[in-house]
Please model this.
Amino acid sequence: MALSIRRDSSLGSAPEALVFADGFPEIDTLAEELDNEFGVDQWVEVSNTSADQALAQLGGNTSIAIVTASADMPQAIEGIAALIRKARDAGLLVLLIVGEISSRSMHMLLKEGVADFAPYPEPEGALTEAIERLRFVRASGNQSGVGLTTSALQRRGKVLTVYGVAGGVGASTIAVNLAWELATLVRKQGRKVALLDFNFQYGSVATFLDVPRREAVYELVSEASSFDQTGLAQALSTYQDKLWVLTAPRDALPLDIVTPTDVKAIINLAREAFDYVIIDMPQALMNWSEPVYTISDDFFAVMEIDMRSAQNMFRFLRTLKAESMDLAKLVFVLNRSPGMTDLTGKARVKRVAESLGITLGHQIPDGGKAVVNACDQGIPLAEIAKSNPVRKEVLRIAQRVATEDATKAASSG
Model:
């Protein structure tokens, strides 16, 4: 009987997971993480040659098969694909753990019907998140699988776009923290959040969350119409197992590198995989800005209380009206709004809103140096300055979004 690499334990004890890791170079580190995730006696490593015997002797508690892939040779990939099929036929949810393999090999393995996958050893926490998703599927009784590659559980995510009418008004800061607050709020309900940085030249989302910029991002944004969920998954980074992030590419690229068709393809892929898609837009209006606006459920237009922002907001509204765009989805946000005791500032806010003919949906106060420090350290405000007034207001926005959706779901159900 095949045993764990570190303990004398047979499959008769019905572990929660079987692990197939022949030739996986990171097996020692992986074994330590699996001990933390499952417990020392709740996973067993099985050699690929013993797979048939092990799968034939499954205990009632065994529900997950972890299959690793690091060799990119065709023969090895075909063998792993066959192993995935055997595990699926045995009724197990298959978690694919991948090292440095090509996109083509990755696509071939995912087509075999894995429930989820996780790159290893990076990004940190991806393994934990994937295992939690499989446990959620098992507990819900839905054995069709989860993750970015499963069509059975396709979502139709809500798109929330954040756009700053002038440089430096804090739109990216709001987008990052809104995405984090929303991800934290809805995670226990099994809902997922993605943050897309559409400022392809100088996007700062990767900096504000300290996540890596993946090579696959360039391929995705330049050829999105030919990509599927696998391509999207390879381009995404994760932050603390809760938030999926599409960063800007590593190199500063022209904003028009993306066509309207590509932008719609990226958003549609994200909507199918996530319940909420937050988009951080560049200030420049491009030929693909219109489809983003059209697809968005809510479009947060961020400004400050200065003449530059007011003039740009006026131009932006005129542009939308000239194109006969739906203005109902606009949510006007005033960042760094005057404090309660600043009566002059409050009067000025009122005059600006009246002159533009808008209603400010949210007024976010000035958070001071704590906001700058959080961005520089790559940490959301909720993790480093929970009581900051900016964090509190962004949390209210996230709660409003989540509550509205919960109310709609209850009324429709």
